[in-house]
Specification:
Distance between the termini: 37 Å
Helix content: 10-25%
CATH class: Mainly Beta
Order of helices and strands: HEHEEHHHEEEEEEEEEEHEH
Number of domains: 1
Oligomer: single chain
Structural class: alpha+beta
Length: about 300
C-alpha cells in the first residue's frame, strides 16, 4: 500500500496495518534474537528490569508478558527502528523528519493464556504538549483473531480521553460500562508476520488473551514528533530526572533529526495519570493492582 494511502487510513481511523514492513531476512533475525532473550529468562524467577513474567513461567517453560526496552537489550531492535522503510513510514505518519523514541517493549502472548491488555488510550499514560505520537507494532508472528490481536475503535483518536481511574487511583484502563466505549465498533488488526500495526496515541484499544496454539509476539516502538515534549506527572521513563538528565535522555532517544528546544503546544485534552496505583511497574501491574474491571471474560 502506498504511503499516502496508509497515511489517509491512519488519520481517518487512528490505526492502520502495514503489510510486509520488514523483509524475510530481518524478520528471521528478529525472531532469533527474541528467542535468545526468551530462553535467557529461564533463569529468572520474578519480574525484573528486563522481563515481565506471565503466570506459569518456569525454567522448563518460559512464559513472558513483556521484554522491557528491547532496544536496550540488543542493538538489532534499534537497527530495525532506524531502518529506511521504518523511517519513511514514521516520517509520513507523524509529518516530520525529526523523530524521537518515547519507549519500546516486546509484548509476548504465550499460547493458551497470554494475558489480556484491558481497553485504554496510551495518551492516558503519557500526555505530551501535542499528540503527534504513535505506536508502531512489528509482528514477529502471524496475528490471527484467535491469538490476541490488537483491537481498536476507529475514529476514537478524534474523541475524548476517557476516564482511566478505578478505586481512587489511576488504573490504566477504562470502565467497560463507560457509555462512550463503543464496543460494537471494534476492529481487529490481523495479518502475516513481518507486517506491522500503527495506532495513534489517543486511539482506544486493547487485546484479548491468546486462546490459540500459536505465540503472538509484537515489537512495539512508541514514537513521537520531536517537538512533542512530555508533561510533568506522566507515568514513564522520565520520572525523577533533573533538567539536565531529562535533556540528555531525550537527545539519546532521537531516532533522526535534531531535538528542538521549543515545544509545540496544541489544544489537546489532558488527564494526568494520578494518583499512582499500588504497583505501577508495568501496564499489567497498573491494571491489576488498581482493581480495574476487565472487559474480557477472564480473570487476570
Amino acid at each position: 500500500m502506498e504511503l499516502d494511502l496508509l497515511a489517509e487510513h491512519y488519520r481517518r481511523d487512528g490505526f492502520v496495518v502495514v503489510p510486509d514492513l520488514v523483509d524475510a531476512e530481518t524478520l528471521a533475525a528478529l525472531r532469533e534474537v527474541t528467542d535468545q532473550l526468551i530462553d535467557a529468562s529461564r533463569s529468572v524467577s520474578k519480574s525484573d528490569a528486563v522481563y515481565d513474567l506471565d503466570t506459569g513461567h518456569s525454567a522448563d517453560s518460559p512464559r513472558l508478558t513483556r521484554i522491557k526496552l528491547p532496544h536496550i537489550q540488543h542493538p538489532l531492535y534499534w537497527q530495525v527502528l532506524s531502518s529506511e522503510p521504518v523511517l519513511r513510514l514514521l516520517s509520513q505518519l507523524l509529518g516530520t523528519a525529526a523523530l524521537r523514541l518515547h519507549t519500546s517493549k516486546l509484548n509476548c502472548k504465550s499460547p493458551h493464556g497470554g494475558r489480556a491488555v484491558e481497553w485504554h488510550q496510551d495518551w492516558a499514560f503519557y500526555p505530551h504538549t501535542n499528540d503527534d505520537i504513535l505506536a508502531l507494532g512489528i509482528w514477529l508472528d502471524d496475528v490471527t483473531p484467535e491469538n490476541g490481536p490488537l483491537l481498536a475503535i476507529p475514529g476514537s483518536h478524534k474523541g475524548p480521553v476517557l476516564q482511566h481511574c478505578a478505586n481512587g487511583v489511576f488504573a490504566g484502563a477504562i470502565d467497560p460500562k463507560d457509555p462512550l466505549f463503543e464496543i460494537d465498533q471494534v476492529s481487529a488488526l490481523t495479518g502475516a508476520a513481518g507486517s506491522a500495526s500503527v495506532h495513534h496515541v489517543r486511539v482506544l484499544h486493547g487485546s484479548a488473551p491468546n486462546l490459540s496454539n500459536c505465540a503472538r509476539r509484537v515489537l512495539f516502538f512508541e514514537c513521537c514528533a520531536a517537538d512533542a515534549w512530555p508533561l510533568a506527572g506522566i507515568a514513564g521513563p522520565y520520572n525523577g530526572m533533573t533538567q539536565s538528565e531529562l535533556l540528555a535522555d531525550l537527545q539519546a532517544r532521537m531516532i533522526c533529526g535534531e531535538l528542538p528546544m521549543q515545544a509545540r503546544l496544541e489544544a489537546v485534552p489532558v488527564n494526568l495519570p494520578l494518583p499512582v496505583p499500588p504497583d505501577n511497574s508495568s501496564i499489567f501491574a497498573v491494571q491489576s493492582s488498581s482493581g480495574a474491571q476487565s472487559a474480557f471474560n477472564v480473570t487476570d
